Amino acid sequence: MHSISISFPPGSAGLESLVTETESCWEILQKETRPIFIYGMGDGAEKIMGVFRQYHITVAGIFASDEFVRGHYFANFKVHKLSEIEELVDDFVIVLAFGTNYANLIQHIRMLSRKHTLYAPDVPVIGEGLFTYQYFLEHLQEFNTVYRMLADEESRKVYLNTIQYKISGKIRYLEPINHDPEEIFRTVLKPTRNECFVDLGAYTGDTIRELLNYTNRKYYSIHAVEPDKKNFKKLERYVENAQLRRISLHHCIAWCRDTELPFRTKAGRQSCLATDGECFPARSVDSFVQNDPVTFLKMDVEGFEREAIWGAFRTIRRRKPKLCVSVYHRNQDLFELPLLVRMIHPDYKFYFRHRLYIPAWDTNLYAIPE
């Protein structure tokens, strides 16, 4: 494998001079004197409360959207309505504990942030550790390398704002970098009507729908990989109802090689590998596409994009397809995944785009052949 030499423009600014958020939201909350209420329940709230214990941050209570409040308890706290808290407390801090891409709910969250101090802390979907300013400094060289690899100013803005958000938990960094899916297709991916598309993490066919809407249902072939049983059945129904042809459905995990892995289904987007899961087939892209002329490869595989990229090594090397890779599951995804793609094939232009989501989920790397 040949080495890669990367040169930067003389005097080009590094991220160390651009990142202004030097204190994490956890450190700010640690010093907060006002009551702190968590908005939301479930896995996100449990993760945040775990970090609160680590930082000795006190939780004053929990509230949920009105339609979810039924006099029940979560983590030994009675779940309140926001209006109930506002009647009892004059000034308090809100910590958001769930993710959403629903426009009306995001608008509601933005309205709350104008009325109350609000943080939406970044906690990794998978893996350990927190994305703090110290973490950023520890990996400054990698961050700077990726930042200077980016092909346009918008990508650099997305990259910088994502880092600022991840450190601070301030949602104001996300609003200016939201991109419409159609805009991303039109300006970055530019799919043709002859794509050989490989969809890793096909879910129920949402990305396939977006692609076909853009290409007026024209394509060469499709491979769709989805491990979750319920999602896969919905995917099958979609393919049947849409009367799609030249499409291969793979009920397996996307991985670096063909094997079996323990897998636990959650009947949603976050079905995952787990030590207590049942053994399930795992396949590499290279093994099932064989000699297909892959032109477009998308990966959203719940934190195992690194393994999926290795499993597509030969395909990327030989075919140099357009890539769309999720980079929000693990802290290191923002630099590790683009550097891995660059190592496999240096002849790509790299873009970052963020689709509407709080927290910074649905942030993607787009690698486009030069």
Low-confidence stretches: 1-11, 267-271
Categorize the overall geometry.
Answer: globular
Number of strands: 17
- By CATH, the architecture of one domain is named 3-Layer(aba) Sandwich
Rounded to an integer in angstroms, the radius of gyration calculated over CA atoms is 21 Å
Mean pLDDT figure = 93
Largest sheet properties:
7 strands, mixed
**Relevant CATH superfamily of one domain:** Vaccinia Virus protein VP39
Strand neighbour order, sheet with most strands = 9-8-7-14-15-17-16
Q: What is the CATH topology descriptor of one domain?
A: Rossmann fold
CATH classification class of one domain: Alpha Beta
Q: Total number of helical segments?
A: 14
Helix percentage: 25-40%
**How far is the first residue's CA from the last residue's CA?**
20 Å
Q: What is the SS-derived class?
A: alpha/beta
Strand proportion, as a percent range, falls in 15-25%
What can be said about this structure in brief?
The chain has 370 residues and is of the alpha/beta class. Among the domains are: 25-130, 3-Layer(aba) Sandwich (Rossmann fold); 178-326, 3-Layer(aba) Sandwich (Rossmann fold), CATH 3.40.50.
Structure explained in plain terms:
Helix content is 36%, strand content 20%. By secondary structure, it is of the alpha/beta class. Among the domains are: 25-130, Rossmann fold (3-Layer(aba) Sandwich), CATH 3.40.50; 178-326, 3-Layer(aba) Sandwich (Rossmann fold), CATH 3.40.50. A hairpin with a 7-residue loop joins β11 (259-264) and β12 (272-273). The longest helix is centred in the middle third of the chain and has 16 residues, at 153-168. It starts with 24 loop residues before the first helix and ends with a strand. The model is unreliable at 1-11 and 267-271 (pLDDT under 50).
